[in-house]
Amino acid sequence: MIFDLAFIWAGIIAFAILTYVILDGFDLGVGILFAIEPDKQDRDIMMNSVAPVWDGNETWLVLGGGGLFAVFPLAYATVLPALYAPLIAMLMGLVFRGVAFEYRWRATKSQFIWNWSFVGGSVVAAFSQGLALGALVQGIEISGRAYAGGWWDWLTPFSIVTGISVVVGYALLGATWLNMKTTGPLQDRMRHRSRYLGVATLGLIGLVSLWTPFLVPEYLERWFTWPTAIFSIIVPGLVVLCAWKLYSGLRDKKDATPFLASLAIFVLSFAGIGVSFYPYIVPPTLTIWQAAAPDESLQFTLIGAVVLIPMILAYSAYSYWVFRGKVDPSAGYH
Fold first, then answer.
1. Fewest 10 Å CB contacts: which of 53, 136, 145, 178?
2. Is residue 329 situated within a structural domain?
3. Are 57 and 201 in contact (CB under 8 A)?
4. Is 108 within the bounds of a domain?
5. Each residue's pLDDT tens digit, 144-196
6. What is the DSSP letter of 253?
7. Rounded to two decimals, what is the model's pTM?
8. Backbone angles phi, psi at 58, to 5 degrees
9. How far is CA 272 from CA 27, 177, 201, in A?
10. Is 285 helix (H, G, I), strand (E, B) or coil?
11. Kindly report the CA angle at 18 between 142 and 23, in degrees rounded to 5?
12. How many CB atoms lie within 10 A of CB 225?
């Protein structure tokens, strides 16, 4: 083959997961922040800010999971048994949050139930994603072509820290999104909260980054031997630059700059994980090429991806363009 189909598909899966994280991350963050907003009208505005786009954002999760099943079946077969509990919890959280969108606007006496379903679903989904990420980063035990670990291998101090990190990071995305989409006292509160959430997010990123190289020997070698050690300088330097843009944007009361800087911090964190992982898709033993389906399957599915991914990008971009600007406080979700 002229093209390395397994490598191309690894890039597509990584792109789908990253896109899901940065898009669904901010609307999960809005749900997390929902818990500390006492005013009903402000909660309505918060939900309205993500109502037109939240379900489209989750398209990327389906693409990432479905793509993994289709083109990396061995990775799918080993990762799922290792992460059943956090992945099922994540899906349940997303279900409760989705139901809350529909029921909250039509409920009267029971509205508080759907408020807390929105909050709880968002927190559980975010924390579960962090748990799964931490479990994957610390490595999954494989024997032959099957998962060989225990039921609770996913639950460790490291995975708990990554779970908390994702919750706090999503809350930062949600706060900066609301700073961009709202006005008045609600915007002022979100701008204020973004400062504290930014400090917490950067601190947790630093903690996880210092911890990660000591989990698997390959990670330590990757980050501290030439030539890949160059990323140990470039990635943290770019994170510092993004942090400066975040706080200067908040200080100058910019609308979009803090949100874009927060997204960039997530992209850089994802790039750091990619540098640690490569060439493994299930560290520390299963590489991209070992887990890939036959080339005929990769070619066939790539044709579909070439058609579908631009379509998804187009309608997603169009929906964000249509609903650009500040949220109308008098609007409702129907």
1. 145
2. no
3. no
4. yes
5. 778 887 888 899 999 999 999 999 999 999 999 999 999 889 999 999 999 99
6. T
7. 0.92
8. -75, -5
9. 24, 24, 15
10. coil
11. 135
12. 10
